[in-house]
Amino acid sequence: MKVTLSVASIFTLILMGLILAPINIDGKNELVLYIGNFHPLILHIPIGALLGVFVLEVVNLIKPKLQLENASKILLWFTVISLIPAVIFGMFLASSGGYNVEVLSFHKWLGWATALLCVWLLVFRLWAYTKSQKTIRIYQGLLFINVILLTFAGHYGGSLTHGAGYLTKDMPVSMKEFFGVEKSKTESILSSIKELAKDKGESEEAKLALIFADSIHPIMDKNCFECHNANKQKGDLRLDTASWEMIKPEDVKKWETVFEEISEGNMPPEEEEPLTEADKNSILNWITNSLNKLTPEVKQQIALKEEAKAKAKAEQRKKELAILASKPKVKLSKQALHYANNIKPIMDKYCYDCHGPDKQKGSVRLDRLNWDMVKGADAESWHSALDMINSGEMPPKKKPQLTAKERKEVVNWITNSLEHAAKAKNSNAKEVTRRLTKSQYTNSLNEILGLPINFGSVLPDDGKSKMGFTNNGETLQISSLHIDYYQKIARNALDKAIVFGDKPEPKIYKITVGEGIGKNEISAEFGGFQSVAIKSDNFKVDVLDSKNNEKTDVDEIKRLIGIGMRGSGNDRFSVVENGLMLYSALPHKDVPPRSWQGPSPNMKMLVKNNFPRSGRFKLKIIAAKGYALEAKEGIIGLRKNEPAVVNANTIIIKAKDVKVINRLQLKDDKFLVPIATDANATAKLKLNVPETGYYQIDLVHPYVPQENMPSFLMKIGRFNKVQERLKLDKSLADKSEIVTPVTLASLKKGTYEITLGGKFFVGFSEVRISQLSDDDPLPKKLKAEAAKNQKKYENMTPSIRAFIGSRTDDGMDYRTFDEDKDVIGGINEFNTYEFTGQLENLPLPVYDPNEKNENSNTMIIGLWNNHLVKQKGETGPPLLVKSMELEAPYHPVWPPESHTNIFFDSPNKNNKEVYTAEVLKKFMEHAFRRPLIEGELDRYMDFWRNSRDDFDRYEDGVKEVLVAVLCSPSFLYLLEGEKPSPKNTAEEFLLASKMSYFLWNTPPDNELINLAKQGDLKKQLPNQIVRMANSPKIKNMIESFAYDWLRVDRLKGMSTNKNLYPDFTRFVKQDMAEETYSFIHYILKENLSILNFIDSDFAMLNQNLAEFYGVEGVKGNAFRPVAIAREKNRGGLLSQGAFLTGHSDGVQAHPIKRAVWLKEKILGDPPPPPPPNVPELDPETPGFETLTLKEQLELHRNKASCVDCHLKIDPFGVAFENYDAVGRYQKLAKNKPIDSKSKLPDGTEVEGIEGIKEYILNLKREDFTKSLVEHLYAYALGRDVSFSDDKELNRIVEKIKKNDYKFQTVLEEIVLSDSFSKSANQ
């Protein structure tokens, strides 16, 4: 009882508080309104629960044997607990206004009383059930009363939501007459229209009235009356009694409001079902026709009313000013009076209707903006308003426009006020203090320690600013997670940098390939899913010491080293007398598991268990240019994925005739299927080949669902196996049998044994072997392929791309390293090619001694011929690999530079106190990027003195201090606080760091530091900018800046439809990003005009990407400028795959994404974000699949909630329709000619991408220049731009224009700008 009383008392206090405490008095508290919207959501829970309590009590009264008392008690508790939030939320919702006050009052207080009575019923029930049956009956009576209260509260709630007559609204007329139900006002209006039609027949008045009754009223009844009725008037607008006769000014005003709200897409609201286009047009046309027929008397009444309203507003403003002026403590400044008397009236006249207290179009409210842009916080909002006024977007064209005098008044006032605010903000500006980004931190550690390890990979990703950059000081905060990581990384990095003892003995594993070279030698052959192993007879394994002598007692290591070719087509590699012939790599269609296996072919040395785990390594490959091999007996990859046509000569081996089977069973007297899904089943088939020739082998099998991983393994004679996992579409489930092409094969006359089966075997009914017919062109093509390829590629060179990783169950986790290297010399002219890297940067297997899986604990060291090709029949320039040798750890000198850079030679080396001070001073100055402040070294020396005795080795004691240095804010941040003296020198060091992290993303080099020491850096800025722009390290800035500015990250995350775009491989994707980086780099290096970003007569391409785009004559992997004819549509950033693919949906082009990118990143005019619940393009629309993108957009744009924004966006996107989802140019889409003509918002007509480029270069050149400058400026300063930067940005733009838009001028002017090169404390 105590608990129940306590709960009831608390709930009662809450309910009483709802009466006494004021709730959202002005109706504008957004949180209260938001919570109130949940009232309808949870309201029905306590209603149902209370009715359930009543039903349980009634049933228990009739059948007490059921003993439902406890169930009723629990349900009553649930009712009370859910009623309290329902009442609270209801009170919050009621405060929003727009409801009939009388009905709302009944609903609110009946609901409140229901809740209060229900709360105390809990207490009364508990007491009653301990007394007598009489008290229980009293409780049940009170419960009945509670249900009655609930019913009345619900009735009034229904009236609020659906209107007063919601119960009788749809009652048949005869029933209304029988029960004497009075006609509603709406029904009276409709009845009067019928009478009018009888009296006036075909008159214009009668026609408009009948249209209203037959068409308009039903539409509004369905879509409008629920929110605009007697008891609920959203926006103080009631429509259910709206008269069709526009004979009163208030009627005209009401219908004008309806017209405006519907035409602008505000009604119905976004969360409701939108009007159909036909319904929308019906209403708008009817209102237009009715307004056109207004009588002169009505028009005069409207004019008088508007005039009176304007006078009332003016009087109200005078009163407000008088009240303010009468207050003794308030003295309006001259500026405030100017705003109140001159600016606010104009804003009130043209702006506040759409951006005021009643409506905030685009979530913009102007009436609350603080006029004082210096002391207030609304300068940015005023800046946005100025942009909208200057661009002509505000007021909208359909609204009354400012006079020339009014526009000048407002524009001048905002402009002047912003200038004052900018000066005030700049005079109080503080330098942005920001930590190093993830990449800057890694680069800094690399340079300080001389270790090229990606130490920062474990750090959390950096957040993005509003402008999209990850180097923004506002987002670069340090969390506790960062601090923990920084300590661990610093300690780990120093452990690797500092070495002890003698040079470690490396592991050197070498494999040499050649026919028969490995006979009687020890090596391994690795199996596994889709594995293709080189026979151990054809390669030799050597385990060597540092002097290249064979080690002894290494047989066990050799038994775990082999060569794997998984992912390689059987006809794309071959062991020859002096090596392994690798044709040019053919990327797989990017679907697993083949996409996890590398391109075809790729060669891998597999090392199980005994692999190096860390350190620098060297991979040495002896290779030469190879030659195309004549077609020979064996497996040949399919040239097309279609079953062969069965004819009289097709050899058919039926499953039921097979005698030698293992773990298979006959099903339906037709199929041999595994006895269990994962059984490793096999069948042995005999194949008698009647004559030598080319054959296609097809497998006939049943449907098996994807979750059972249907697969097959087929091995013909001594040739390598063919193993595949099938992707069987569900549409094939009803097929009695499915035919899957397996392979082509060159077979000789005679008998072959076919082994068929494998784990998760799909089963089969037949194996069909069809000889390619004489009239089939493929046999001749296969015979001629070698000679044709030899001639085609005789003047081209193969290329070696090396990689390292770990073996997985059905592929590999790998990463390439170092640069690819072209093979020099002629056929069979062997040379040595060396690749180096750091094992810590590569995905090595995590060694687990307890793991016994055949693929576990296996490192892969591999390569492929990087002269990529696109077709199976193309060999490319073959690569002949003689040997591959891995050495790790690789130390050309000992101790390594990472150690000697810290513990350098010094005459004071034996004096630990002096030597330690030298070591720390040099390391700290390198880490802090400046000379030390007086006393700064002492703190770290004290740390060393206090901790040195805790370590056995001197170096370990120093290392602990160095960990502290690498966790210091002076290393982790670009600081302006702590500075050495004199002041000008300090500023020079800060400038050196800012320049270096801006242009190189790395710490300053010796030249910058030396100039800073001499105080000459500022004098030498122009020369240093040129030097830095021409350094290879400038690529760091280009990649980091372009990745964020141009949203190259979207390319990285894009997943395209592999069936539609099978040749869009990961290699094409990588090259698209590199195309953009190389393009920007070339323009900067050659100091070309930035207008080349919009259009250029060249593109940066390599062979792989050029072939993908359809550009001929580009050979080799290196990116280089390629002259591009205008009709190729490939010049500039706008036609590059990184942007086009990244802004598609993976299936087709996405004009909206592309248009938003263009406006935001290129034109500097970002559109507003889409509203919530914005409808998507609806694929269910009849005929949708045949519509072009332009037609789909027109359909989407017709929706009221979408039209305004899309009219400003879509025209830019339509111009990109010629580019598909992967950035290739097309003239047809869905078998229709593409119409890329578009009319831009300013009325300019363009056609396609060339039209957009001309538009920008001719009309928007300055907009693009400013957009580029703004983004690069924000990146350089590590902060977003604001209105206070406008003057400086405009100055930079003017300088760039005067210098022919040279890219290096952009960098130079940003670095020379006051915001960048001058200290905030000056």
TrEMBL record:
Instruction: Establish whether keyword Heme is in the entry.
Output: yes
Q: Name one Pfam family in it.
A: PSD5
By its UniProt entry, which InterPro entries does this protein fall under? Cyt_c-like_dom, Cyt_c-like_dom_sf, Cyt_c_Planctomycete-type, DUF1585, DUF1587, DUF1588, DUF1592, DUF1595
Recite the UniProt keywords alphabetically: Heme, Iron, Membrane, Metal-binding, Transmembrane, Transmembrane helix
What residue intervals traverse the membrane? Answer: 7-25, 41-62, 74-97, 109-127, 139-158
Q: Where is the Cytochrome c domain?
A: 203-418
Q: Which PANTHER family match?
A: CYCLOINULO-OLIGOSACCHARIDE FRUCTANOTRANSFERASE-RELATED, F-BOX DOMAIN-CONTAINING PROTEIN
What protein name applies here? Cytochrome c domain-containing protein
Q: What is the native source organism of this protein?
A: Postechiella marina
